[in-house]
C-alpha cells in the first residue's frame, strides 16, 4: 500500500509507463518526457542532492518558474525526506533574501543565472541552477552536477 508521496511517485513510474508522462513547450512545440526518463532524472537528481549533503528534514529552496525540472527537483527532495521551500519568482530581491535566510535551507536551486543574481548569492552558499536539458546543474563556482554522473551508491529512498 502506498503511504507517502515518494512511494506514490515510485509506484507510478513502475506501474504506469507512458511515452508522455509530462509535456513541456519548446520553441512553440510540445515535447514529451517519458515516465522512464522522468523517473531516471528524479533518481539522478536525488543522488546528486544526497552527494551535496541533503538529508532527511533538510530544506531545499526552489526559485523557478513552472517547468519540468521544478517538479523533478521537488520529487527528488521528497524522496530523500527533505522539505521543498518554493519561492515565487515575482518577489523582489529583499524578499527572496529574507526567505533564504529565514528558511535554514541547505541548498537553493534556481532556474537560471538571472534568478540567482536576484537572490543576491553570498560567498559559500550552495546555489545551483538548471541549465541545458534534463536539469543539469552548474554551481556559481563552475562545478557541475549533471544527471548522467554517478554520484553515490546510496539509493533513492521512499520516505
Number of helical regions? 5
Strand percentage lies at 15-25%
Distance from N terminus to C terminus (CA atoms, Å) equals: 14 Å
Mean pLDDT: 77
Predict the CATH topology. Answer: Rossmann fold
Task: State the order of secondary-structure elements, H for helix, E for strand.
Answer: HEEHEHEHEHEEE
Report Rg: 15 Å
Number of structurally distinct domains: 1
Strand order of the largest sheet: 4-3-5-6-7-8
Q: For the record, what CATH class applies?
A: Alpha Beta
Percentage of residues in helical conformation: 25-40%
Class based on secondary structure composition and strand pairing: alpha/beta
* Overall 3D shape: globular
Number of strands: 8
Largest sheet descriptor: 6 strands, mixed
Structure write-up:
The protein is α/β, with parallel strands linked by helices and 159 residues long. The protein has a single domain (5-145), classed as Rossmann fold (3-Layer(aba) Sandwich). Helices cover 36% and strands 21% of the residues. The protein has 5 helices and 8 strands, in the order αββαβαβαβαβββ. The chain has a 6-stranded mixed sheet, with helices on both faces. A two-stranded antiparallel ribbon has the order 1-2. Helix 5 links the parallel strand 5 and strand 6 (127-131). Helix 1 runs antiparallel to helix 2 (35-52) and helix 2 (35-52) crosses helix 3 (68-79). Residues 132-159 have low confidence and may be disordered.
